[in-house]
Amino acid sequence: MYLHGTSKINGQGHLEIGGVDTTKLVAEYGTPLYVFDEALVRERCREFVDAFKASGLKFQVAYASKAFCVMAMCRIVEEEGMSLDVVSDGELYTALQAGFPADRIHFHGNNKTIDEIEMAIDAKIGCFVVDNFIELQMLNAIAGEKRQKVKILLRITPGVEAHTHEYISTGQTDSKFGFDLGNGAAFRAIEEASQLSNLELLGIHSHIGSQIFEVEGFRLAAEKMAALAVEVRQEIGVTFKVINLGGGFGIRYVSEDTPLPVSVYVKAITDAIKDNFGRNEYPLPEIWVEPGRSIVGDAGTTLYTVGTSKDIPGVRKYVSVDGGMTDNPRPALYEAVYEAVLANRATEEPTEVVSIAGKCCESGDMLIWDLNLPEVNTGDVLAVSCTGAYNYAMASNYNRIRRPGVVFVSEGQSDLVVKRETFDNIVGNDIIPARMKQVSKTV
Ligand SMILES: Cc1ncc(COP(=O)(O)O)c(C=O)c1O
Ligand SMILES: N[C@@H](CCCC[NH3+])C(=O)O
Predict the structure, then answer these.
(1) In total, how many domains does the chain have?
(2) Pairing mode of beta strands 340-342, 150-157
(3) 432, part of any domain
(4) Who lines ligand 2 at CB under 6 A?
(5) CA of 277 to the centre of ligand 2 (A)
(6) Cis peptide before 32 (omega within 30 of 0)
(7) What does the pLDDT look like over 20-55, one tens digit per residue?
(8) Candidate from 63, 112, 175, 207 with most ligand 1 atoms within 8 A of CB, to mutate
């Protein structure tokens, strides 16, 4: 397993993160457990901020909280001087409860409800990223009722779609998000927005994909956004102050992955903006980005306890852990791959190939196929790395399994930042209708 951040194997042969022995974390908090290397999260934040500072451009780095949104994480983002991107009332509520400054919050989403818009306007958030024509009119109307001028970006679908190792440029992108550049919807939305009296159009936004390992897609998106900005300035005299190029910066999940350093992505983006706007004598806009995975992904590790195993001679050996698709649905959803070690025997040489299964009643509930490990025993601790992004965030209670707790570790200290769910959480919202026969509890 690739050792990220402060992770190392200590003198007892145990995996240690943030100066804390993971076997001690298991003894204290139980398993499954999400462990975050706080120093690595902060390092990733600083890599973005420092790279933008080096560019000399004005900027905002807005953490895409969808990747992992809990109050302690919002505090880190605030302390690191970044902004925050939310996509629902729940994420907004989490940020506000954590005391995150509302004026640094950006609200995304292709179907914001009236309640969400009202909540965000009342909280005086920094900006809405408007996704479609209905939202544009709705937002203008609600802002008018509340006598507020609301800052917006327009989400443009630029016809650039990027995947891990490739990007494609299409004439017209088939996407539920944003105003399409190719068919003229983007230009019409800009014209319309610039005339709506309760909205202040700051600029345009694009997001070309996630887990991207190359800079070419970002360069192309910057070029297309600049061309649109220039056209808009010439045709209707509107000058954008902000260009937001979204998130999508790739991370190393497994040793073979080859993400670029954050500074390389940022330099490609800022150079492309300088070139394309500078060439057209356009006042250099602020550059905003929205990294999610690249802030928290490799800082997260999930600890499990090994339970049962099943050896099918000549076929494979299944080793089951006390979590699975409920705490990490990514292998089932995307065939995502992960690496893992036995945290309590991390120096031992691998002697067998096993496949790690979850405990859900679902054949697809597999975490890792064909993993090399020393002979695995019941009670061993399995540490799966790079589970910081879209794991806790997408966790579920399938099979009524309680969601695990989350711990931040740093400089030899561990802090519980999310408690493990309780059985009361599991049944807390259930109601037995009065018309059903009432019986006393059996537990
Ligand atoms: C609009 C937008 N911004 C930011 C992100 C964050 O992406 P990532 O976690 O890949 O950086 C996403 C998710 O892909 C997104 O849809
Ligand atoms: N949830 C996805 C990424 C979605 C990105 C959000 N727009 C993942 O786990 O990789």
Answers:
(1) 2
(2) unpaired
(3) no
(4) 66, 210, 330, 390
(5) 31
(6) yes
(7) 999 999 999 999 999 999 999 999 999 999 999 999
(8) 207
